[in-house]
Amino acid sequence: MTPTESMIDLHSHFLPGIDDGSQSVEESLSMLTESKRQGVVTCVATPHCTLHRPDDLERFLMNRNEAFKKLKAAAAGSDIPEIFLGGEVYLDNNILKNYDGIERLCISGTDYILVELPRRRLDKKITELIFNLSVKGMKPILAHVERADGDELDEIGIWDLDIIFQVNAESFLNFSSRRRLKKIFAAGGKFVTGSDMHNTDTRPPCMLEARNVSKNKFPGLTDELFYINAGNILKTAHL
To answer: What backbone phi and psi angles, to 5 degrees, belong to 118?
Structure first.
């Protein structure tokens, strides 16, 4: 398998029993085995991270590491992708003001942090928070940007930020979401694809099918979307 035939998945929920993703080690291994079959060589675990109470950050990191230990022990000898650890950080409050050590949520060994927009009308406070993450030395990756209201993204100046934009693999698979992808790709910026897989049933891995569609609909971007840009992110890792 050549590098451009391989894929890197920067957004997934395969760690067992930590969020609304995989609920067992067995399911986790099934998800990862299928991802490897599809051509994913590296998969970043990004369980949901919502910070509301003073000890939420420490609790998240403890639970994430325990889930990873269980998976790693069960995966011995299995043919699964290389695993990096991170989180999908929900931006519903000022995480920089209220929590020390937020940089520990960055993808293993890197300065890149996956963040999720709040489920409310967006305002410029969100843009300011994402910008301030950059000021603090982190490099935000904005999760499944295609889900957000396009007019609101324009209003808050999201495209002016020097960040990475992540899109979900499933968005390549139907006409209406591909129209949305076409529009946001035209806005410029750097994009990566993630599976956002949660299970083997309703939200399974679909990176291969998405890449095949992308080769037809976005041929000039496909290698960047599925391998090159994510590869450049992980190359910065100091493990």
So the answer is: -70, 155
φ, ψ of residue 89 to 5 degrees: the values are: -90, 120
Q: Which residues contact 50 (CB under 8 A, 6 or more apart)?
A: 56, 90, 92
Q: What are phi and psi of 87, to 5 degrees?
A: -160, 160
pLDDT by residue (tens digit) across 80-110?
A: 999 999 999 999 988 988 788 999 999 999 9
Give the CA-trace dihedral at 183, 208, 219, 196, to 10 degrees.
Answer: 30
Alpha-carbon span 104 to 158, nearest angstrom: 24
The DSSP output letter for 221 is T
pLDDT digits (tens, 9 = 90+) for 109-129: 999 999 999 999 999 999 999
Cβ-based neighbours of 237, under 8 Å, separated by 6 or more? 84, 107, 108, 109, 110
Calpha distance 74→71 (Å, rounded): 5
- The residue extents of the domains of the chain are 3-235
Q: What is the DSSP letter of 77?
A: T
Distance separating alpha carbons of residues 150 and 79, to the nearest angstrom: 40
Does domain 3-235 bear CATH number 1.20.1080.10? no
Q: Please check the confidence at residue 3 and state whether its pLDDT lies above 70.
A: no
Distance CA 225, CA 212 (A): 12
> Residue 171 and residue 177: Cα distance in Å, rounded?
5
Nearest to 172 by CA among 204, 217, 141: 217
| SS3 state of residue 168 | strand
**Bridge-partner residues for 141, per DSSP?**
114, 164
The span from the CA of 237 to the CA of 155, in Å, is 34
CA–CA dist 130, 2 (Å, integer):
35
